[in-house]
Every structure is written in structure tokens, then in C-alpha cells.
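Here we describe the complex-level prediction in full. Unlike the single-chain runs in Section 2.1, the two entities below were treated as one system.
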Amino acid sequence: MSHESPTMNAVKSFILEEFLPGEDPGNLTPKTPLMSAGILDSLATLKLITFLEQEFNVQIEAYEADEEHFDTLETICKLVDSKR
Amino acid sequence: MILHQYLDDAARRWPDKAAVQEAGGSSITFRELGSLSDRLRDRLIELGVRPGDRVGFWIRKSIDGVAAIFGALKAGAAYVPVDPGAPAARNGYIFANCAVAAIVVESRFQETLLAELAQHSAYPKVLVIGGNGGGVHLRAALDEEDRRAKAPPAKTATPQPDDLAYILYTSGSTGRPKGVMLTHRNAVSFVEWCSETFAPTPEDRFSSHAPFHFDLSILDIYSAVKHGGTLCLIGEEAGKNPHELAQLIAEMEITVWYSAPSILSLLAQHGRLESRNHAALRLVLFAGEVFPITHLKSLAKQWPHPRYFNLYGPTETNVCTWYEVPTPIPESRSEPMPIGKICSHLEGVVVDAEGKATGRGAEGELCIRGPGVTQGYWNLPEQSRDSFITVGAAPAYYRTGDIVAEEPGGDLRYLGRRDRMIKKRGFRVELGEIESCLYRHADIHEAAVVALPDEVLGMKVHAHVACKDGKKLSLIALKTFCSRHIPVYMIPDVFTFHAALPKTSTDKVDYQTLKARS
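The structure predicted for the assembly as a whole is:
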């Protein structure tokens, strides 16, 4: 399992609170599929992007809001960290 | 042929055979059932009931109730049974709506019913019976009336085949129940088809699990009476309890079982079927909703000996397609059974959204015509007209509202309700398909999906599930599971976990209640 960085902890908490109320945090791993499993639908993805932009002061391009970048906590954090 | 002729014939051919048996042990012979219903006929006519009238009854499942059915028919009336467990407001509405001339009611329901009827300014004649069971309560009420003034013996009415035999009220989309009018010809054509398909004999013992206000009861009652079999009545309470039911099936030596799939699912899960002797069972018939395949597989494993039939059809046509389930069912099967082929007494056509017949294999709405099809809804000429469609030459077809597609082998596959197809983000989504997906999950034993308009999403899909042992599942695990079986846009937006899903009086999942709770 990858190292859970501060970025990851923040993103993870946001997703758990916003989209997975009541979920056991242990079930959300860095590699849990999010977009392809319907956990992040298009609306949820938009909310998440707004959060990332504000929280980490980065700019996410529209073309990046796809499965390649948003399917797991790991890929999301990689995207965010690459912009900081 | 008219329905009560079946009883007249049976009373002549098998006078001393048990016509009806109650779970408690009471029974009545064909001769006794004949004479008890004759007495009710005389009393109803004395009360003013005339051919073409309606006679309502509010009686729990009992010999008294069966006699009431035949008494009303013999008076030339159409019978109107109501759900004994429904509120007085609903039952009062039904009786007032179709302007019953007389009502046979158990004393416990009398007061609230009469108050309700008065609100509708309806004052039918009322015959009150003290309770239900064994036919003794109806007999006692008739004796009591006779002591006051004897009902003169009347002749049994001989209605025309197209005269109404019964009206069954189903929930209407407007929130008011609507009365499906069914004639002697409608019922007789279906009963004759049953004879051809299931070859009943006087040795058969038919379950009467469905309530009398549910169209499954037509097969139970009239196939049993026509063939001199015994109708085995299962009361409302026992009918919901898989332990008691499994015991009753053994004790009453039922040979032909007919019910909605939901109770069979419960029997498969909690009936401890292997510990009982169900050797007599030769036919298991089910209708009314899709039988979740996991439970059907489990049932067929525990009861390997009977033949299984998936019967399909709305109240408006009674059964209109049928499919014999090949057993054993392969463990790998994950699709529900097809609904099969059109019954031989009916004709069907599949039409597209424009009302044109579709090509072979294309999906569309199933439409049915023939002697089994209703004339329409009581006092709702517009809704009745809208329920029929002309495709090619007359007569018109009844629109079932169900979407089907023909498989290469000629069997029809049920895809879902026309009104359960929604559009989400431009995709066509069949809520039933989401349910089938959820049913594949090993921990889910009930699933129902409803859709509600949503400002942002267009439609929000809400899944209600009940899990084994009442546990809650991880949303991540559940959504991930769904993503392996259905496209992402079909994965429910919201999940709610229940101990058990709410049911209607006919044991189907109560979607109205779930919608209200979504």
C-alpha cells in the first residue's frame, strides 16, 4: 500500500464526508476505484475539483477530470502534487 | 360456460368430496358448498340483488368467503372482493365506486365500513356474519335471517358469457383504486387454458395463498372446483410466515402451489424445506413479479421434484404468457427466467413507441387480445379507452405497459415496466435491471429501486435494500460490485438499508411507500 501523505489524508476525508457518509474509512484505500465504480459521478467530481483547487491552490484543467486522473486516491494525489 | 356452472357440475359429480379445506381442519363438500351458496343466492335476491348488480364482500380467507363468491355469482351479480386488511376508507371507496347492491361483511369490520359508506352516501343492503371459518358463520347469519323472514327459493341466474363475473380493484396511478371488470368469458377462457396446460385431476389439492381480491385466486378457486380438486385455504397471517407455510404445505398435502415469488423466496430461505415432507407437490406456479434467480435456484434445489412455471400477466388479462422452468437450474445462471410464450387462448403483439409492431427480437411493449382480456375499468371510460391500441386489423389489443423482447427461441423476456424506464444523463435506464444486479450480491436478499426527479441529476436513482441478518454494506463495496455488472450511469445514487422492504397486501414490494421514503 502506498504511503498516505497529508494530501491524501485531506482528499480522503473530503470524499468520505461528502460522498460516503457512514463508510468505514478502512474501506477507502489509495487504490479503490472511484470513478469507474460510480462513487465519483460527474457531479461529485466537480465538487471534488472545487475542493482541490481551493484546498491546495492548484488549477485543474477540464480535460484532466477523467478516469485516468480521478479514478483512485493515488492518481488524484499524484495530479495535485504535480501541480504544486 | 359460466363460472358457477363449474360448482353445479362438481356438486353433481363429486357431491361428497371435500371442495374446500381450511388450514384449521374445517372442510366443506361440493354438495354442501352448493347448498350454502344457494341459500346465500336466495337471501341476496330477497335483499333486492338483481342480475347485473355488484355484491361486495369483506371477509377474511375462509369457507364463508368462498361460499360468498358463489352465492353472488348464482344471484347473477359480479362479486367485488376487498383486501380484508385494508383500511375502511379504501374498502368503502371501492364498494361505493362500483355501487354494490349488497355487502357480506364480518361483524368486526361492519361499523367502520358503514360509517365510511355513509360518507359516500352509499347505503347498500348488508348481511353481517359473526366471524369467519368453516362456513358456520355464513350459515348462522342465513339461519338468523330466515327466522325473521324466510328467503323464497330462487333460481340460479344464467348470465351471458360477456356479463361481469367479478371486479378486482388494483392501485391506480391517480391514487384511487380502479376496478378491473372481468366477465365470465374472461375467467372461463383462462380456466380452460389452465386445464389444457396443467391437466388437473380430482386428486389435486390447490393452494389458495393469494387473497381473493388478487387475480391469482381465479386459478386456485375455479381450477379446483372445475376438476373436483380441493381448495386449501391459507389464511392471511399464516400466508406470510415461511415456517408455518412449509408445515401447512406438508400437512395439507398440497399438490399445486400458486403464489407470488416473494413468499417462495422466503420459503427457500427460511422454510427448512428439507425437514418436511412435500412429496405431494407436483406443480409450483408463480406470477406477479420477477422471481429473483438466486432464490428460485435455491428453491428448485430444495424441491427438485415438482415442475415449475413462470406465469405472467396483469390483472387485465390474467395470465397471458407462460414458461416452464427447466430444472435443475444451472448454478451459473444469473438472469431471471423468461416469461415465455403467449397462452394459446390469447394473441400478442410487441409494439414500439409509435405503436407499430416491432420486428422479431426488438424490444417493445407487449399488447394482448383475446377472450381473457378485460372490457376495461369500472366507470372510467377514458382510461379504459387509453389502455387499448389497434395494431393492424381490429379488435384492439390491451397495452400491458410491460416492455419485452423476443429471444431467438421464441420466448419473451421481460425487460421492465414502460413506466419504470427512465432517462438519466441521456441514457435509458431500466430500474428492474439495477434490481437484478443488486440481487446478484450474496448479502442482499431484497432490493427495490425507485427514481425521483432531481434538479441537478435529472433523475436520482435510489436503491432500497435489505441484507441478510439486517446488516449494512460498505457503500464502496456495493458500488464497486455494481460497477462490475452495470454501466456506471446505472449505479444508484443513494442507498438505503432496511431490515425488510415494505410490502403491499398482495405481497409485492410496495414501491409507493418506498418512493415516499426516498
